[in-house]
Write a structure and sequence with these properties.
By secondary structure, the protein is an alpha/beta fold. It has helices spanning about 20-35, 55-65, 85-90, 95-100, 135-145, 150-165, 185, 190-195, 215-230, 240, 245-250, 260-265, 270-285, 300-310; strands at about 10-15, 40-45, 45-50, 70-75, 80, 105-110, 115-125, 135, 170-175, 205-210, 235, 255-260, 290-295, 310-315.
């Protein structure tokens, strides 16, 4: 059985009511939803309705029910207050963006200590229907609100693999672990696409983002084990935020660990950031990970990090994100 959230079928919304009056009115609402063909399923105290009937139900709830005792949820998610339903309905545009694949990938170089290109990071950019740019944080926030995070994350992964394949260069690809229900099903399309394009899987480094929100460590380990089994590599971002112990990091065994830009910018003249960078470096080397510093904008910070032992670097100092580079551009290959 596949995971929930994999498609873009009409959104189904569970409605739960408490209290005698609300339960009585919920039965009335069920009849109205059935007449308008918006009812999907009905149980005692819970209705599952199609999005096409959600606004009508919300109006009925506002006019007649005790809204404080009515809640809703999207498939696979927790119950929410009815006051949040309007935000879900207002993000319907994200479905069209995903269906129309209004996305392009920009690539930012990652360099070694000699400033030779070692890899690229693929970064998603989105456009509105009129062609104007949509900021990634707005798009991902809307997808999360609407329960479309998996579908959006999958689109980004697939597009990154497609556009990185001709480069035949190591490419870092972001993914959100909380959007993946089952690695065996959710990631199957990604691995099959890489195989179809005849790309060595070790060239792809899947980078965990939102690591500060990673609460289910066992689930994350299953995802990373799946990637490793298929020959891919993986990296952890914002390690200091999400993984507090050396034992935890050693258990995950990331191929790369990224020092976040917050600890990099100005590190050459900030003693607190220097202590963080040195501790991070020591941790990465102790567990066998390659340390990578991102967000480098000044040569002073680059030189300081290089002298301390960092091996890979990323930031505006070496290049801004841009459209896919020429496949003929030389990329250094080395094994750390």
């Amino acid at each position: 059985m596949g995971c929930q959230g994999c498609g873009l079928n009409e959104l189904l919304i569970d409605i739960k009511a408490e209290g005698p009056l609300n339960l009585h009115l919920l039965r009335d609402a069920s009849r109205l939803m059935r007449i308008s063909n918006a009812l999907h399923h009905a149980d005692e105290g819970v209705l599952t309705i199609k999005e096409s009937g959600a606004r009508e139900f919300a109006d009925f709830c506002d006019d007649h029910m005790d809204g404080e005792r009515v809640r809703f949820r999207l498939p696979g998610e927790d119950w929410r207050a009815m006051s949040e339903l309007s935000a879900v309905l207002e993000t319907e545009w994200i479905d069209k963006l995903i269906a129309e694949r209004r996305i392009c990938m920009y690539f930012q170089p990652i360099v070694d200590i000699e400033e030779r290109i070692y890899a690229y990071e693929a970064l998603a950019r989105f456009t509105d229907e009129d062609g104007s740019l949509l900021y990634p944080n707005i798009v991902f926030s809307a997808a999360k609100t609407r329960g479309r995070l998996y579908a959006l994350d999958r689109l980004c992964r697939m597009k990154a693999v497609e556009e990185a394949a001709p480069l035949r260069a190591k490419t870092f690809i972001n993914f959100i672990p909380t959007s993946i229900y089952s690695p065996e099903f959710c990631l199957k399309s990604t691995t099959e696409l890489a195989a179809k394009l005849n790309v060595d899987p070790s060239l792809f480094v899947f980078e965990v983002v939102e690591s500060e929100k990673t609460e289910d460590l066992e689930h994350l380990k299953r995802i990373l084990a799946f990637y490793k089994e298929k020959g891919f590599q993986y990296a952890l971002d914002d390690v200091g935020e999400g993984f507090s112990t050396l034992e935890m990091l050693a258990e995950l065994k990331p191929h790369y660990m990224k020092l976040d830009r917050a600890h990099v910018h100005g590190v050459s003249r900030n003693s607190a950031k220097q202590r963080t960078a040195e501790l991070f470096l020591d941790t990465a080397l102790r567990i066998g990970s390659v340390p990578l510093a991102e967000g480098i904008e000044s040569r002073e910070d680059f030189e300081w990090l290089k002298q301390r032992g960092y091996r890979l670097f990323q930031g505006y100092l070496f290049g801004k994100p841009s459209l896919p580079p020429s496949p003929l551009q030389e990329v250094k290959t080395c094994n750390f």
